[in-house]
């Protein structure tokens, strides 16, 4: 069991909602860098405490933040809730978490790595694309890591799974439009997911192309500008993020150094975050070998 985070900060989002940022300070006097962990669908930030603690023990200050509408996020889900999708997370919520993490460490020059789980990896790619265009000081990334992540593009899956995703990409938008939310049970989770985020997911599952609702930049052009190294880590038996779908995720980064690692550990789609040693070792080894962004 992981210890309690060194700091739990309440993020005050511009639209009025709040969420937690759970920070584990580096065990070393001078941190080697920063990690921001983005959850998967229907998973709260606290679930990632063990892997955040492992990065901290290795000398990195690590934090997990919420996806809007999950965990401690108060944004709400439904027709009357504030709309939140892929662009909103990349343009508003994650920059706030990055700024807060940097202010906590007082390390404006420390390398920043964004580690996304499942849908969190997709959102990390969107963040990287937008920052490649806007280039806000202090918000650039030194690496993007996707663990059990993927593009949901239906062609990246075995035929029977791809057909289900293709069907979902047609049916889920109906629920999103009528109710402003869709059941997370479609993805094996609990509760509801924000409608706009599911509309963005559906578009990505149908076409494999980044075109989120409300975008203020061309995300496809942004991805072409990204030079940040990207690492995809896959696990055996993970039907939600097989190697074929992870390769499509890496294709989001056409002009960046890309690495695929398959870890032969029976940790499923989620359990790696609670048994972090195999992932920790793979990520630290990759950092030691990739060029700085």
TrEMBL record:
<keyword id="KW-0378">Hydrolase</keyword>
<dbReference type="InterPro" id="IPR029058">
    <property type="entry name" value="AB_hydrolase_fold"/>
</dbReference>
<dbReference type="InterPro" id="IPR017208">
    <property type="entry name" value="UCP037442_abhydr"/>
</dbReference>
<dbReference type="Pfam" id="PF12146">
    <property type="entry name" value="Hydrolase_4"/>
</dbReference>
<dbReference type="GO" id="GO:0016787">
    <property type="term" value="F:hydrolase activity"/>
</dbReference>
<feature type="domain" description="Serine aminopeptidase S33">
    <location>
        <begin position="30"/>
        <end position="132"/>
    </location>
</feature>
<protein>
    <submittedName>
        <fullName>Alpha/beta fold hydrolase</fullName>
    </submittedName>
</protein>
<dbReference type="InterPro" id="IPR022742">
    <property type="entry name" value="Hydrolase_4"/>
</dbReference>
């Amino acid at each position: 069991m992981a210890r309690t985070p060194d700091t739990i900060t309440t993020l005050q989002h511009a639209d009025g909602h709040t969420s937690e940022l759970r920070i584990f300070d580096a065990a070393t006097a001078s941190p080697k860098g920063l990690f921001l962990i983005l959850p998967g669908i229907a998973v709260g930030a606290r679930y990632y405490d063990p892997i955040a603690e492992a990065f901290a023990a290795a000398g990195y200050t690590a934090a997990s933040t919420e996806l809007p509408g999950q965990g401690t996020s108060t944004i709400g889900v439904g027709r009357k809730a504030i709309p939140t999708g892929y662009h909103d997370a990349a343009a508003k919520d994650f920059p706030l978490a990055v700024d807060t993490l940097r202010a906590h460490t007082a390390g404006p020059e420390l390398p920043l790595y964004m580690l996304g789980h499942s849908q969190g990896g997709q959102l990390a790619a969107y963040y990287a694309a937008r920052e490649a265009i806007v280039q806000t000081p202090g918000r650039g990334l030194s690496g993007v890591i996707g663990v059990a992540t993927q593009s949901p593009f239906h062609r990246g899956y075995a035929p029977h799974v791809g057909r289900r995703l293709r069907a979902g990409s047609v049916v889920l938008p109906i629920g999103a439009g009528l109710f402003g939310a869709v059941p997370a049970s479609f993805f094996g989770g609990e509760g509801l997911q924000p409608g706009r985020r599911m509309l963005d997911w559906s578009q990505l599952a149908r076409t494999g192309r980044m075109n989120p609702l409300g975008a203020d930049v061309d995300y496809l052009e942004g991805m072409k500008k990204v030079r940040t190294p990207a690492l995809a880590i896959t696990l055996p038996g993970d039907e939600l993020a097989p190697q074929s779908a992870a390769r499509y995720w890496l294709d989001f980064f056409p002009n960046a150094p890309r690495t695929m690692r398959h870890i032969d550990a029976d940790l499923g789609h989620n359990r790696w975050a609670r048994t972090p040693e195999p992932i920790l070792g793979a990520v630290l080894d990759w950092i030691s070998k990739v060029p700085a962004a």
